[in-house]
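Per reviewer request, we include the raw input and output of the structure prediction for the construct analysed in the revised manuscript.
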Amino acid sequence: MSPKTKPDSTTRQDQTFLYKHKQKLIGLFFWIGLIAFYQWFAMTNNLNTVEVIQLLLDFLTQGLRGPLLYVLLYAIRPLIFFPASLLTIASGFVFGPILGVVYTVIASNVSASIAYSVARFFGKGILKEDNPEGLLLRYTHRLRENSFETVMFMRFIFLPYDAVSYFAGFLRINFWPFILATALGSIPGTIAFVGFGASIERFTGAIPTFNPVTLGYSLIILVLSILLSRFLKKREGIKNDK
């Protein structure tokens, strides 16, 4: 091949790569843009994560737009790495214990679906399974053979929420067993965190005042969830992280 043909060959290869991966590249740029916008907004307004939450709370209390905005924020949350626990607690404070659980179950399943879809779209061929390592990778075979039971188990033992969703997408397991197990397996933790948020009656400066009954109820649910998690981990021979 002469030197003159090399640039043309390289150009054709670049065009072929761009043509084959254009949808993934568009999605990747959207993802990067979303993260950059969040970081720009927080830095421009000199806000930390808690202050961003407080700002969002003001919007969430504005009539019927509040629940829709909450679901939308929760849906894009895994793309900008926003803590799920903070939004879940906020829903209890804004919407109360019952509606907070309803809205969070809906929102968290939308969020899990998006994380699953992103990983399924981008992840084909990325995950190497010939020498699996780590806590998530040990469930590779079980996820594919028993998707519903394994995802439910992973939700019960409080493995990182988004990591499980992304992992399931990478493995391209069936969507419906994944989302049903996510909905059921996340309920105990959702009730506990929403209950904690609902127990906050008001803020005196930066110090919250709690309703002791609601707080006690949420703590009982949380303790029971943790005990169940520890029991399941012990049965599986999983060591708790120090």
